[in-house]
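User: Predict structure, ligand zinc ion.
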Amino acid sequence: MQATMFYGPEDVRWEHRPDPEIELPTDAVVRVTAACVCGSDLWGFRGYRPPGEPRPVGHEFVGVVEETGAGVSTVKPGDFVIAPFVISDNTCVNCRNGIQTSCLHGQGWGALDPDGRQIDGGQGEYVRVPLADGTLVATPEQPGKELIPGLLSLSDVLGTGHHAALAAGVGPGRTVAVVGDGAVGLCAVLAAVRLGAERVIACSSHADRQQVATGFGATDIVAERGDEAAAVVRDLLGDTGADCVLECVGTEASMDQAMATVRPGGRIGFVGVPVGGAQVRIGQMFSRNVAVGGGVAPVRAYLDELLPEVLDGRLDPSPVFDLELPMAQVAEAYRAMHERRSIKTLLWP
Ligand SMILES: [Zn+2]
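Assistant: Predicted complex:
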Protein backbone atom coordinates (compact mmCIF):
# COMPACT_ATOMS: atom_id res chain seq x y z
CA MET A 1 0.00 0.00 0.00
CA GLN A 2 0.89 3.67 -0.07
CA ALA A 3 0.86 5.69 3.15
CA THR A 4 2.21 8.86 4.67
CA MET A 5 5.46 8.84 6.62
CA PHE A 6 6.61 11.69 8.82
CA TYR A 7 10.36 12.21 8.49
CA GLY A 8 10.91 15.49 10.28
CA PRO A 9 10.27 19.21 10.05
CA GLU A 10 8.43 20.07 6.82
CA ASP A 11 9.10 16.57 5.52
CA VAL A 12 6.17 14.18 5.04
CA ARG A 13 6.28 11.63 2.23
CA TRP A 14 3.75 9.44 0.47
CA GLU A 15 5.52 6.12 0.10
CA HIS A 16 5.25 2.37 -0.15
CA ARG A 17 4.50 0.50 3.09
CA PRO A 18 3.75 -3.14 3.90
CA ASP A 19 0.09 -4.10 3.40
CA PRO A 20 -1.50 -4.42 6.84
CA GLU A 21 -2.68 -7.85 7.95
CA ILE A 22 -4.58 -9.16 10.94
CA GLU A 23 -1.91 -9.72 13.60
CA LEU A 24 -4.07 -10.15 16.69
CA PRO A 25 -7.61 -11.59 17.04
CA THR A 26 -8.84 -8.14 18.13
CA ASP A 27 -7.57 -6.43 14.93
CA ALA A 28 -9.46 -5.25 11.89
CA VAL A 29 -8.05 -4.06 8.59
CA VAL A 30 -9.76 -0.95 7.23
CA ARG A 31 -9.55 0.48 3.72
CA VAL A 32 -9.41 4.23 4.24
CA THR A 33 -12.01 6.19 2.27
CA ALA A 34 -11.09 9.61 3.68
CA ALA A 35 -8.47 11.01 6.05
CA CYS A 36 -7.31 14.47 7.02
CA VAL A 37 -4.54 16.52 8.53
CA CYS A 38 -4.92 17.65 12.15
CA GLY A 39 -3.70 20.93 13.60
CA SER A 40 -1.71 18.78 16.03
CA ASP A 41 0.08 17.07 13.08
CA LEU A 42 1.41 20.53 12.27
CA TRP A 43 3.32 20.80 15.54
CA GLY A 44 5.60 18.02 14.32
CA PHE A 45 5.69 19.49 10.82
CA ARG A 46 6.87 22.75 12.37
CA GLY A 47 9.70 21.01 14.18
CA TYR A 48 8.30 20.43 17.66
CA ARG A 49 9.65 17.07 18.93
CA PRO A 50 11.12 15.63 15.69
CA PRO A 51 10.85 11.82 15.44
CA GLY A 52 14.03 9.77 15.92
CA GLU A 53 13.23 7.87 12.76
CA PRO A 54 10.47 8.14 10.13
CA ARG A 55 7.08 7.00 11.39
CA PRO A 56 3.57 6.57 10.00
CA VAL A 57 1.35 9.56 10.68
CA GLY A 58 -2.30 10.58 10.75
CA HIS A 59 -4.97 9.89 13.35
CA GLU A 60 -8.24 10.92 11.71
CA PHE A 61 -9.83 8.59 9.18
CA VAL A 62 -12.97 6.78 8.10
CA GLY A 63 -13.17 3.72 5.91
CA VAL A 64 -14.59 0.32 5.14
CA VAL A 65 -13.72 -2.82 7.09
CA GLU A 66 -11.94 -5.32 4.85
CA GLU A 67 -11.15 -8.08 7.31
CA THR A 68 -11.56 -8.80 11.02
CA GLY A 69 -9.76 -11.01 13.52
CA ALA A 70 -11.55 -13.93 15.17
CA GLY A 71 -12.19 -11.94 18.34
CA VAL A 72 -13.93 -8.99 16.70
CA SER A 73 -17.72 -8.92 17.05
CA THR A 74 -19.03 -5.34 16.71
CA VAL A 75 -17.84 -4.63 13.15
CA LYS A 76 -17.69 -6.89 10.09
CA PRO A 77 -16.25 -6.72 6.59
CA GLY A 78 -18.13 -4.18 4.50
CA ASP A 79 -19.07 -1.91 7.42
CA PHE A 80 -18.36 1.81 7.07
CA VAL A 81 -16.52 2.85 10.22
CA ILE A 82 -15.29 5.93 12.03
CA ALA A 83 -11.97 5.71 13.87
CA PRO A 84 -11.51 8.04 16.86
CA PHE A 85 -8.07 9.58 17.22
CA VAL A 86 -7.12 7.29 20.11
CA ILE A 87 -7.31 3.49 20.12
CA SER A 88 -9.26 2.16 23.11
CA ASP A 89 -10.86 -1.06 24.31
CA ASN A 90 -14.00 0.79 25.48
CA THR A 91 -14.34 -1.67 28.36
CA CYS A 92 -11.73 -0.78 31.01
CA VAL A 93 -12.56 1.38 34.02
CA ASN A 94 -11.38 4.61 32.38
CA CYS A 95 -13.37 3.87 29.23
CA ARG A 96 -16.45 3.09 31.31
CA ASN A 97 -15.94 6.45 32.99
CA GLY A 98 -16.08 8.07 29.56
CA ILE A 99 -12.38 8.93 29.31
CA GLN A 100 -11.37 6.59 26.49
CA THR A 101 -8.29 8.73 25.87
CA SER A 102 -6.97 7.32 29.17
CA CYS A 103 -7.82 3.72 28.24
CA LEU A 104 -5.68 1.32 30.26
CA HIS A 105 -4.96 -0.47 26.96
CA GLY A 106 -4.93 2.69 24.87
CA GLN A 107 -2.62 2.98 21.87
CA GLY A 108 -1.78 5.65 19.34
CA TRP A 109 -1.99 5.71 15.55
CA GLY A 110 1.48 5.62 14.03
CA ALA A 111 3.05 4.45 17.29
CA LEU A 112 4.25 1.05 18.52
CA ASP A 113 1.91 -1.16 20.51
CA PRO A 114 2.99 -2.45 23.96
CA ASP A 115 4.61 -5.49 22.28
CA GLY A 116 6.50 -3.37 19.76
CA ARG A 117 4.24 -3.94 16.74
CA GLN A 118 4.00 -0.96 14.42
CA ILE A 119 0.53 0.60 14.27
CA ASP A 120 -0.35 2.24 10.96
CA GLY A 121 -1.10 5.93 10.67
CA GLY A 122 -4.44 7.13 9.38
CA GLN A 123 -3.08 9.00 6.35
CA GLY A 124 -2.71 5.94 4.18
CA GLU A 125 -4.62 3.51 1.98
CA TYR A 126 -5.11 0.83 4.64
CA VAL A 127 -4.87 0.66 8.42
CA ARG A 128 -4.57 -2.24 10.82
CA VAL A 129 -6.89 -1.22 13.67
CA PRO A 130 -6.02 -2.74 17.07
CA LEU A 131 -8.84 -3.22 19.60
CA ALA A 132 -11.32 -2.89 16.75
CA ASP A 133 -14.40 -3.61 18.87
CA GLY A 134 -13.64 -0.78 21.25
CA THR A 135 -12.22 1.69 18.77
CA LEU A 136 -14.36 1.56 15.64
CA VAL A 137 -17.94 2.73 15.34
CA ALA A 138 -19.94 1.53 12.33
CA THR A 139 -22.69 3.48 10.63
CA PRO A 140 -26.02 1.67 10.16
CA GLU A 141 -25.61 1.77 6.37
CA GLN A 142 -23.14 2.97 3.72
CA PRO A 143 -23.13 6.77 3.76
CA GLY A 144 -23.21 8.80 0.56
CA LYS A 145 -20.04 10.61 -0.41
CA GLU A 146 -21.54 13.95 0.62
CA LEU A 147 -21.72 12.76 4.24
CA ILE A 148 -18.12 11.59 4.45
CA PRO A 149 -16.54 14.94 5.47
CA GLY A 150 -18.98 15.30 8.39
CA LEU A 151 -18.40 11.70 9.46
CA LEU A 152 -14.65 12.23 9.25
CA SER A 153 -14.95 15.22 11.60
CA LEU A 154 -16.29 12.79 14.24
CA SER A 155 -12.88 11.18 14.48
CA ASP A 156 -11.53 14.32 16.12
CA VAL A 157 -12.56 17.94 15.61
CA LEU A 158 -16.33 17.76 16.15
CA GLY A 159 -15.99 15.64 19.29
CA THR A 160 -13.16 17.86 20.50
CA GLY A 161 -15.22 21.03 20.05
CA HIS A 162 -18.11 19.31 21.86
CA HIS A 163 -15.76 18.35 24.70
CA ALA A 164 -14.68 22.00 25.10
CA ALA A 165 -18.33 23.06 25.26
CA LEU A 166 -19.23 20.43 27.87
CA ALA A 167 -16.15 21.23 29.97
CA ALA A 168 -17.10 24.92 29.95
CA GLY A 169 -20.66 24.15 31.06
CA VAL A 170 -22.36 25.40 27.88
CA GLY A 171 -26.13 25.11 27.98
CA PRO A 172 -29.33 27.04 27.25
CA GLY A 173 -29.09 30.74 28.06
CA ARG A 174 -25.32 30.74 28.44
CA THR A 175 -23.00 33.26 26.87
CA VAL A 176 -20.03 31.69 25.14
CA ALA A 177 -16.77 32.95 23.68
CA VAL A 178 -14.56 30.70 21.56
CA VAL A 179 -10.81 31.39 21.43
CA GLY A 180 -9.26 29.83 18.33
CA ASP A 181 -10.53 29.70 14.76
CA GLY A 182 -9.03 26.42 13.59
CA ALA A 183 -11.27 23.48 12.79
CA VAL A 184 -11.65 22.67 16.50
CA GLY A 185 -12.58 26.25 17.40
CA LEU A 186 -15.12 26.33 14.60
CA CYS A 187 -16.56 22.98 15.70
CA ALA A 188 -16.70 24.38 19.24
CA VAL A 189 -18.93 27.16 17.89
CA LEU A 190 -21.18 24.54 16.29
CA ALA A 191 -21.25 22.49 19.50
CA ALA A 192 -22.11 25.51 21.65
CA VAL A 193 -24.98 26.47 19.33
CA ARG A 194 -26.19 22.86 19.39
CA LEU A 195 -26.19 22.87 23.21
CA GLY A 196 -28.48 25.91 23.24
CA ALA A 197 -26.13 28.79 24.08
CA GLU A 198 -27.79 32.19 23.84
CA ARG A 199 -24.77 34.07 22.50
CA VAL A 200 -21.78 32.49 20.81
CA ILE A 201 -18.90 34.86 20.13
CA ALA A 202 -16.23 33.57 17.76
CA CYS A 203 -12.78 35.16 17.94
CA SER A 204 -11.23 35.23 14.48
CA SER A 205 -9.47 37.75 12.30
CA HIS A 206 -9.68 35.67 9.10
CA ALA A 207 -12.59 36.34 6.76
CA ASP A 208 -12.88 32.71 5.59
CA ARG A 209 -13.01 31.40 9.16
CA GLN A 210 -15.40 34.14 10.27
CA GLN A 211 -17.71 33.04 7.49
CA VAL A 212 -17.67 29.39 8.64
CA ALA A 213 -18.27 30.50 12.26
CA THR A 214 -21.26 32.58 11.20
CA GLY A 215 -22.59 29.67 9.16
CA PHE A 216 -22.29 27.49 12.27
CA GLY A 217 -24.46 29.96 14.20
CA ALA A 218 -21.99 32.33 15.87
CA THR A 219 -23.93 35.43 16.89
CA ASP A 220 -20.90 37.73 16.99
CA ILE A 221 -17.38 37.84 15.59
CA VAL A 222 -14.48 39.48 17.40
CA ALA A 223 -11.42 40.17 15.25
CA GLU A 224 -9.26 41.61 18.04
CA ARG A 225 -6.78 39.50 19.99
CA GLY A 226 -5.75 39.08 23.61
CA ASP A 227 -6.97 41.59 26.20
CA GLU A 228 -8.47 43.75 23.46
CA ALA A 229 -10.65 40.84 22.38
CA ALA A 230 -11.70 40.26 26.00
CA ALA A 231 -12.72 43.93 26.30
CA VAL A 232 -14.83 43.69 23.14
CA VAL A 233 -16.54 40.55 24.51
CA ARG A 234 -17.41 42.38 27.74
CA ASP A 235 -18.84 45.29 25.72
CA LEU A 236 -20.89 42.96 23.52
CA LEU A 237 -22.33 41.11 26.51
CA GLY A 238 -22.75 44.11 28.84
CA ASP A 239 -21.29 41.83 31.49
CA THR A 240 -17.94 41.23 33.18
CA GLY A 241 -17.12 38.47 30.71
CA ALA A 242 -18.58 35.34 29.12
CA ASP A 243 -20.16 32.55 31.19
CA CYS A 244 -18.23 29.96 29.20
CA VAL A 245 -14.96 30.28 27.29
CA LEU A 246 -13.83 27.54 24.93
CA GLU A 247 -10.03 27.57 24.55
CA CYS A 248 -9.14 25.76 21.32
CA VAL A 249 -5.50 26.69 20.64
CA GLY A 250 -3.21 25.57 23.47
CA THR A 251 -0.76 28.45 23.69
CA GLU A 252 0.06 30.72 26.61
CA ALA A 253 -1.51 33.65 24.73
CA SER A 254 -4.76 31.79 24.06
CA MET A 255 -5.06 30.61 27.67
CA ASP A 256 -4.41 34.17 28.89
CA GLN A 257 -7.06 35.43 26.47
CA ALA A 258 -9.51 32.82 27.75
CA MET A 259 -8.82 33.86 31.35
CA ALA A 260 -9.28 37.54 30.46
CA THR A 261 -12.55 36.74 28.65
CA VAL A 262 -14.33 34.59 31.25
CA ARG A 263 -16.49 36.33 33.85
CA PRO A 264 -15.98 35.78 37.57
CA GLY A 265 -17.68 32.48 38.41
CA GLY A 266 -17.44 31.34 34.80
CA ARG A 267 -15.83 28.25 33.28
CA ILE A 268 -13.09 27.65 30.74
CA GLY A 269 -13.11 24.45 28.69
CA PHE A 270 -9.69 23.87 27.16
CA VAL A 271 -8.90 21.41 24.40
CA GLY A 272 -5.93 22.98 22.62
CA VAL A 273 -2.84 20.77 22.91
CA PRO A 274 -0.64 22.75 25.35
CA VAL A 275 2.65 22.52 23.49
CA GLY A 276 4.36 25.78 24.32
CA GLY A 277 4.43 25.54 28.11
CA ALA A 278 1.04 27.26 28.51
CA GLN A 279 0.20 27.86 32.16
CA VAL A 280 -3.08 28.21 34.00
CA ARG A 281 -2.89 31.00 36.53
CA ILE A 282 -4.27 29.35 39.62
CA GLY A 283 -4.26 32.67 41.49
CA GLN A 284 -6.76 34.05 38.99
CA MET A 285 -8.86 30.91 39.24
CA PHE A 286 -8.94 31.43 43.00
CA SER A 287 -9.56 35.15 43.15
CA ARG A 288 -12.18 35.16 40.38
CA ASN A 289 -13.77 31.75 41.05
CA VAL A 290 -12.99 30.55 37.55
CA ALA A 291 -13.22 26.81 36.85
CA VAL A 292 -10.93 25.31 34.22
CA GLY A 293 -11.78 21.89 32.79
CA GLY A 294 -11.23 19.85 29.69
CA GLY A 295 -8.19 18.16 28.23
CA VAL A 296 -7.64 15.66 25.45
CA ALA A 297 -11.12 14.93 24.16
CA PRO A 298 -12.51 11.40 24.55
CA VAL A 299 -14.30 11.64 21.21
CA ARG A 300 -15.21 7.93 21.35
CA ALA A 301 -17.54 8.80 24.25
CA TYR A 302 -19.49 11.27 22.10
CA LEU A 303 -19.86 9.23 18.92
CA ASP A 304 -23.14 7.58 19.87
CA GLU A 305 -24.70 10.97 20.57
CA LEU A 306 -23.30 12.95 17.64
CA LEU A 307 -23.29 10.34 14.86
CA PRO A 308 -27.09 10.19 14.27
CA GLU A 309 -27.24 13.98 13.94
CA VAL A 310 -24.45 14.02 11.37
CA LEU A 311 -26.10 11.17 9.45
CA ASP A 312 -29.46 12.92 9.24
CA GLY A 313 -27.92 16.30 8.42
CA ARG A 314 -28.98 18.17 11.57
CA LEU A 315 -25.32 18.66 12.38
CA ASP A 316 -23.08 19.58 9.44
CA PRO A 317 -19.46 20.29 10.38
CA SER A 318 -18.25 19.68 6.81
CA PRO A 319 -17.52 23.40 6.06
CA VAL A 320 -14.34 23.11 8.16
CA PHE A 321 -12.88 21.21 5.22
CA ASP A 322 -12.02 23.91 2.71
CA LEU A 323 -9.47 21.97 0.67
CA GLU A 324 -9.63 18.44 -0.71
CA LEU A 325 -6.63 16.68 -2.22
CA PRO A 326 -5.65 13.18 -3.30
CA MET A 327 -3.67 11.44 -0.55
CA ALA A 328 -0.63 11.29 -2.79
CA GLN A 329 -0.47 15.09 -2.38
CA VAL A 330 -0.33 14.84 1.41
CA ALA A 331 2.78 17.04 1.59
CA GLU A 332 0.86 19.87 -0.06
CA ALA A 333 -1.98 19.30 2.44
CA TYR A 334 0.44 19.88 5.31
CA ARG A 335 1.92 22.96 3.64
CA ALA A 336 -1.52 24.45 2.94
CA MET A 337 -2.51 24.14 6.60
CA HIS A 338 0.89 25.23 7.88
CA GLU A 339 0.67 28.38 5.75
CA ARG A 340 -2.98 28.87 6.79
CA ARG A 341 -4.14 28.62 3.18
CA SER A 342 -6.50 25.91 4.41
CA ILE A 343 -8.49 25.55 7.63
CA LYS A 344 -8.50 21.75 7.33
CA THR A 345 -7.54 19.59 4.40
CA LEU A 346 -9.35 16.38 3.51
CA LEU A 347 -7.44 13.60 1.76
CA TRP A 348 -9.13 11.19 -0.65
CA PRO A 349 -7.37 7.93 -1.52
ZN1 LIG B 1 -10.17 1.24 28.05
